[in-house]
């Protein structure tokens, strides 16, 4: 399975870079993510729930970030197992291009292989589910970036749901770090 896509994000490239390197932000935006814990330099254990067609499972795995060039992009490799549901492994590359000082183009390429019951349900269903998950991630990511910007400007977020408040809280810290000069 291969996927290629891009999103225009209404924030500076350095803010996008910081968000892509903040495990709290990623956890809040990845559909079904239960935890992301750092276990080594740029190596993480990930636990998430996923449903692909009739198969629902809890996947445990690892993610390793490599080739990081701030604030331009990085590569990552992942692998995970969901018990009887099967496994997934692959990689992705993310590039960030500055459109102007307040807008960033995020481009990604990913490749993955699945096995077990996941492979038996068919490539089209797996591809479709992966695209839906990617869309949900980027929708949440864009919303979180926008909400963080609005919160930094003093907009009341008291009507937001709990998930959005967690995202905004994480971004407030990220934005404070950026203003303090720490881009990572």
From TrEMBL:
This is Carbon monoxide dehydrogenase subunit G (CoxG). CDD domains: CoxG (cd05018).
């Amino acid at each position: 399975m291969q996927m290629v896509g891009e999103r225009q994000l209404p924030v500076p490239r350095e803010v996008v870079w910081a968000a892509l390197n903040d495990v709290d932000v990623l956890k809040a935006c990845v559909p079904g993510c239960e935890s992301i814990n750092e276990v080594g330099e740029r190596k993480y254990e990930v636990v998430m729930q996923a449903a692909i067609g009739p198969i629902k499972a809890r996947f445990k795995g690892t993610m390793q970030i490599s080739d990081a060039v701030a604030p331009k992009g990085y590569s990552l490799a992942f692998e995970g197992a969901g018990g009887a549901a099967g496994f997934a492994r692959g990689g992705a590359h993310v590039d960030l291009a500055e459109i102007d000082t307040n807008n960033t183009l995020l481009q990604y390429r990913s490749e993955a292989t699945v096995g077990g019951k996941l492979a038996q349900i068919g490539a089209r269903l797996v591809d479709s589910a992966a695209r839906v998950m990617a869309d949900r991630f980027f929708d949440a990511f864009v919303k979180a970036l926008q909400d963080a910007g609005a919160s930094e400007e003093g907009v009341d977020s008291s009507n937001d749901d709990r998930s959005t408040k967690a995202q905004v809280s994480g971004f407030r810290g990220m934005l404070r770090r950026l203003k303090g000069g720490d881009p990572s």
